[in-house]
Structure formats: C-alpha cells, structure tokens
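Design a sequence for this backbone.
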C-alpha cells in the first residue's frame, strides 16, 4: 500500500492511500494535501498507523524536516492522528486549527502549542501561496470542523465534505460529485445533520473554487460553487426530513 502522488493544482500535491478492505467492494481512500510554499503546509496528517507511508511520500516531494504547518478539517484519527509523529520529524512544524479545536482537543493532544486560526484568517505560506481558514462547525461533523482555501489556485481543501467511496482518479474535470457524496452519506451516515449544515456549506460557494480537493474522493475541477450549492440544498432537505420524522414520532 503506497500513496499515489499527483499535483492537482499548481504546487498542491494529493497523497492518496486506497484501502480496499474498508467498505468493500468499492474500498475507501484517504487523501492528504501538501501545499508547497516557503512554509509548506500539510492538510491531513493521515492515520497514525499510516505515518510511515505518508512520511515517505512527502519525502519524495520535499525534505520532511522543512514542513512548517500541519492542518486538518477536524480532530479525528484520519485527519490528525499522526500530528505528533510529524512534529517529531519536523522541528518547526506547528498545528494550526480553529479556536474550538485548539481549546477543546489540541492544547492537550498536540505535543507542541498549536496556533489558533480565527474564522477567515490567512496564513501566508510564501511563494505566492495563501491559505485561508474557514470555520464550518458540525459540518459535516465535529464541533471544531473547518476547511481551508488556497487563494492563488482557487483550491478548496474540503475535508470530509463530498465524501465518496472508491479509488478515484486524482483529478476529474466536471461530472457529478454530489450523487456519489449522497451514496457515501447513505452508507456511512457520517454527517451531523445539524440545522446549520446547509448554510455552512452554502457560505463557501462565493469563493467560486476552481478545484474542490476531497479527502475521500477525487479532486473536482469545474463549477465548484454549483457543486457546493447543490450539496447544501441536499443537506437542508435531508436535515429537514429528519426533523419532520422526529416530530411525527413525537406526535404519534
Ligand atoms: Fe471525519
Ligand atoms: Fe476524513
């Protein structure tokens, strides 16, 4: 099992590890993204037990001790399980995440003090790369959830949004990513279905991302705003249906 490495946007590399034993027969992939800059940033550390695989993959792209930032969508094993392993091999690496995640989990779980990113705050990575952090609480899950947007390439690092099964191509040009995301939701039921989910996703659409970089799925190049709005509409509907079911059960 070796991560596949692909450049999905200028200076942004997708490291993808496919695990056929999860959700067979389709299987399931875990993606991390390395954003090259003077201060390189890794979005998703990968599972702790996959650290040697991801370390060796990053080492093919850059000296691992030069990694500066470790970021992720929320506090969960596949997103950040290897953060302390990365900090052990990269002496200047620091975790950067939103206030909730830092206060609730990372101040305790990270071996070095994390940096708190406010909603909308930008880290200038140098080399033309600028990463903006955006809070998306409970979306798709995790109180601390957030996404990152690389401004120079228009790449939205979506975390678990649009999660789908399978060993997907690194990049797809157009096509449907909402249908496969609904299948993923039906199977895993991974979303919080909080009433604010649709609006948290819809709030990302004005970025008009050129690339939607999925943690579990391909990187989609096309009308990112339309895909985000369609996903938001779907979750508004699904959450509304769930609440209606609850009220019917209560009335019965
Ligand atoms: Fe997750
Ligand atoms: Fe994930």
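Sequence:
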């Amino acid at each position: 099992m070796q991560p596949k490495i692909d450049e999905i946007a200028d200076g942004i590399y997708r490291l993808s590890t496919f695990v056929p034993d999860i959700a067979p027969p389709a299987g399931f992939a875990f993606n991390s993204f390395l954003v090259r800059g003077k201060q390189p940033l890794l979005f998703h550390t990968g599972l702790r037990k996959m650290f040697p695989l991801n370390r060796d993959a990053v080492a093919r792209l850059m000296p691992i001790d030069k990694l500066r930032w470790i970021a992720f969508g929320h506090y969960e094993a596949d997103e950040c399980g290897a953060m302390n392993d990365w900090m052990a091999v990269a002496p200047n690496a620091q975790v950067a995440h939103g206030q909730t995640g830092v206060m609730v989990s990372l101040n305790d779980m990270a071996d070095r003090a994390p940096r708190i990113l406010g909603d909308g705050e930008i880290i200038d990575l140098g080399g033309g790369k600028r990463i903006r952090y955006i809070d998306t609480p409970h979306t798709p899950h995790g109180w601390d959830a957030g996404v990152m947007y690389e401004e120079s390439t228009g790449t939205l690092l979506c975390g678990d949004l649009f999660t789908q099964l399978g060993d997907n191509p690194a990049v797809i040009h157009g096509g449907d990513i909402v249908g496969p995301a609904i299948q993923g939701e039906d199977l895993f039921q991974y979303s919080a279905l909080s009433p604010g989910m649709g609006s948290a996703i819809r709030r990302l659409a004005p970025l008009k991302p050129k690339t939607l970089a999925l943690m579990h799925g391909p990187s989609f190049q096309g009308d990112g705003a339309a895909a985000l709005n369609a996903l938001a509409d779907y979750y508004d509907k699904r959450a509304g249906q769930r609440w209606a079911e609850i009220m019917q059960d209560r009335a019965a």
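The radius of gyration is 17 Å.
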